[in-house]
Amino acid sequence: MSVTVNKAGKVNLRTPEIMKLVQDHVESHYRSPVVEYLRHTRQPLSAGALTVKLAKAFGFCYGVERAIDLAYAATKVDQFKGRPIYLLGEIIHNPDVNDQLRAMGIKSICESKGEYPLDHLSKEDVVIVPAFGAQVKVVDRLKEIGCAVVDTTCGDVMTVWRRVRQYQREGVTSIIHGKAWHEETKATASQATSDRKSHYLVVFTLQETDYVCDYIRNGGNKEEFLRKFEGAYSPGFDPDTHLQAVGVANQTTMMRNETEEVQRRIKQAIVDRYGETNLTRHFRFFDTICGATQERQDALAAMLNNEKMDLLLVVGGYNSSNTSHLAEMGEAKLPTYFIKNSEKLISPERISHWNQHRHCEVETENWLPNGHVVVGITAGASCPNNLIEETIVRLFSFRGVKVESLLPPDFRDVLAAAPAPSSPGH
To answer: What is the pLDDT of residues 142-156, one digit of tens each?
Structure first.
């Protein structure tokens, strides 16, 4: 099966014929009948004094599914057979998925000192741009080389790009709520400065936001400001000049309530400095939180507020932004363990999990209480269903229970009759 490449070097692999070709391959790696059954029935599993509850929304979103489909498709089409296929960094922030792509022969190009080494590439090579997108300079270099580019950038990310490019056209500095070191935020920042004249500033916390707000209101020590935000602003950024007119955007996987608070505080600072009547001259904002990210946050909030649970397991890659926010939500309410896969459930007495405050894996003893226990499970948008199923299977194995025995014999008929789950926001 062949494909066409447009003048920009980008390849459209998402056609019905190609997607049908890769569907069985993708599902063989990531599909989980157990998770599908639980998703459709909305019922917990209980046996052996253990109850497992799944959040209403969890796991792969449409953007992630699309990115994986396209990466798989790149290995299947006739036009790319025999040609080296490369991936910029990681397709998504999940180690199991990225390991699977490497096993299929896709080679990773890793950043070195903030740059992707691309000089070894030629026009015979195929390069996959990950779901987070890539910086403008990287895409321009790929065009210059003449590589075939498979662009899996998420549609929600591109919505943010359109917004910051609008700020750029209006001469407004983009203030991006996000993580300055994250691939998505770096790509968005490059869009905000693609004319090489505009500027951006990245704020991560509300404390950083308050510092910026105070500077907007009262001015301050420019050198101190630039030291504080080193690595998080555009070349030539001057807070005395470039904070006079600002537009707020965000990394799509941040917490909605925090992004809204960033917007509110910066807006108020602008009002205090320039007056309400001049607000539209000095301030812009737009809601660019990913719909799937928000859906997963809302589903977990509902479970935390309305369900009785003894502990929460959050499954996903440790460098996944949206997954880390789910873990933060859980930690505020009950014992929460952030694991990348079922192997981290070492035994009923010992678990290895990610500590977000120390930025390392730690082990906790006696994590699974004796007697009847209710365990909640959720997963980030980059976590495949098979990893969730393996976690459930591992949990029940600690109580001597086989999960298959808990499903009705006719559960495949139940699945066939149930509507397919939707992917809000896309």
So the answer is: 999 999 999 999 999
